[in-house]
Amino acid sequence: LQARGSGRIVNLCDVSADRPWPDHLAYCASKAGLAAVTKGLARALAPDICVYGVAPGIAAFPERFSEGSRHTLTRRVPLGREGTPEEVATLARVLLESGDYITGEIVRIDGGRSLV
Question: What InterPro entries would the database entry show (predicted)?
Answer without folding.
Answer: NAD(P)-bd_dom_sf (IPR036291), Sc_DH/Rdtase_CS (IPR020904), SDR_fam (IPR002347)
